[in-house]
Amino acid sequence: MALITADRERFPNTPWQLVETRHEQGSAGTLETLFALGNGHLGIRGAHWAPADADLPGSFINGLHEIWDIKHAENAFGFARTGQRIVYIPDANNFTVVIDGEALSLAESEVLEYRRSVDFATGAYECRIRWQCRSGATVTTTERRAVGFRSRGSLGISLEVAADRQVSLDVTSTVSNRQDQPVEDHSNHDPRRAGRHAGRVLLPLRLDGGDGSLRLSWEAAESKQRVGLAVDHWTSPGHQPFDTLVDQDESSVRYVLAASADEPFRLEKSVSYAAGPAVQDDAVDAAEVAETGLRPVQDIFEESEAHYKDYWATSDIVVTGQPELQQAIRWNLFQLAQATARADVAGVPAKGVTGSGYEGHYFWDQEVYILPYLTYTNPDGARQVLEYRHGILPDAKIRAKELSVDGALFPWRTINGLEASAYYAAGTAQFHIAAAIAFATNRYLWATGDTSFREGMGAELLIETARMWISLGFFAKDGLFHIHGVTGPDEYTAVVNDNLYTNVMARFNLRAAAALEHSGITQEERQLWQAAANLMHLPFDERMQVHSQDNDFMTLEPWDWTTPRSKYPLLLHFHPLVIYRHQVLKQADTVLAMFLQWQDFSAEEKQRAFDFYDPITTGDSTLSACVQGIMAAEVGYAGESLKHFTDAAFIDLDDTHGNTIDGVHIASTGGVWSSLVCGFAGLRDQGPLPFFDPRLPAEWEGLSFHLRISGRLLRVELTQGAITLTVSDGDPLDVDVRGSKVTVGSDPVRVELADIPEPEPTVFPTGLPTAGIPLVRGRN
User: Fold this and answer.
1) What is the pTM of this model?
2) Catalytic one of 491, 634, 640, 717
3) Does the annotation count 32 as an active-site position?
4) What CATH number is attached to the domain comprising 115?
5) Mutual angle of helices 379-391 and 393-402, in 10-degree steps
6) Which of 8, 208, 605, 674 is deepest in the core (most CB within 10 A)?
7) Does residue 725 lie in a domain region?
8) Each residue of 226-241: pLDDT tens digit?
């Protein structure tokens, strides 16, 4: 399935914008995701301003959620007890425009011209429509939006109505509280989609308005979280509101006037939200706090443009000679900025602030897929995500005790720090989230040299996760350290013994903690961690000469690969027990371990693992294509690397997984960044020096980007046959390029690169328990 690439006349290929030139019915919800705006704290879906033309409109604040008691059909000790779901906050992005008695609507009115866009360079959304009204008038409406950055809860909206003759104009600007309105609950059909609460969620605390201003606030019924909203209107020419109405579900400001042909009507709507600890006190008026964030609409547009000017100066990634990919790359990078820029100390939801998918929860996605991007482009942002993890450390320690382990056990999915995964086999059993947090912590420390974080929060995260691993695993009779009863990244194989990814990452975690110079570590602990790491069992199949995904994976029945594509993703068509007993992957698992712990495996081991697992990986997870592409590049499979990368770049733009309507797959956008930097440029970190082993596709003329490493700004430029490195800001930096150390300063350093021939694919034995698996590289 394709959306953007299938109709380039409707969605022209422009390098700095996503543009739609023709409206068509049927894809409104998906496009609301693709045209969404956000700053990591506040998100506004890209719905049309007319409610009749919207499919799944809404606005969100990162972390603002409602809770409920999870009802298990059959309960057991330690099951998740508190459900958490991101709240649809009251949405200010709504207008009705009536011309000579006709309410303009894409579904009902005649459209002469249509164009909407989101501009990556400025962060501005614009929709311009020329209408042929039934009264004979030709009218053009232009709506523009931008979110604030200096004041992260602010939103600026302008609506201009221009007619070719005098018309009777009736414009209503509305704030809609949709959270409480009954809608179809999709969560029973697709676990990736968010459900909706059955009763009223947001209870009004203040509902005031007059003279075009609204001051509103609500409190969530169970979580007691509050949100305040302040809205001011301004018109040109200056018109007084005809009416201002306030209600808990809809509050509106209405303008009725005769509009002349020579003077367009312009309505500016300044919006400000306030949420979080600052408005939780009963003595604090949340609406008044929101009011302090109101800014002139033009100021919001200007600060958005200034923010993105700075952002792209060091965060742009340029691929020369590939214009179709360049637009997709920038759209993905734009989404990363929108998901993180002003999140401050908070997690990054799996859908950012573009939709309600996955209930607005934080997963391991943020540490493994998003923090690499943040660490090397916005280190302060990376630290703030880790500070959020440290903030929920007390809850993680309590959770560890519930599951009879020491240290800290972080929740698989959460907003408020409590485990919210009701299906433990694919949730709580993914203990590897502890190693993901430790890995991101160690990478941040390696890349920044942040001493205060190393000695404080960072050390605590590494130590408490190491304590969890040493108590979860055990030394067996074979003298090796084992970790049983866990689920790795591949959720199509659950609750297994010695998942290779988990063991490899736990080994890393134990070694990183043992290497700390910290008074909180006893000598006995340090020795125990080192012993467990050195004796960690890593399953290996002698007959296939491949690392096994777990102790029993090689004994499983091969999946029937004649299963029609209509039955994918498998999780929507087969009971988990059917999937669990077959040799089939949802996403990269062993291959991911070999990417993250690259120094622990030989080139031959990596190639054999890729050759074995890539054909049996369905790609049902959006987290997979980027990793498969990175490892395809490392082992030398240029064609497959480019194919996997292209699949990742267009996951949302082409809605290839069928659920973009619920929000952008932010981890996948982070994976696109890693594919370019770690895949084609071959960056590997956490070793003695930054290491580059470039694998530029033959179809590309060049690739360039910046990295922030150890207080320097390093510019990397790849061309066919060479890599050029320059420290744009900071002291000289030692870098390893394919085993040769080079010192890079302010003068460009060019290193010639020899061509690397593509290796012969692995030929696996036949007549073994794995016979029947389509071991053909690149099948997926």
Assistant:
1) 0.96
2) 491
3) no
4) 2.70.98.40
5) 50
6) 674
7) no
8) 999 999 999 988 899 9
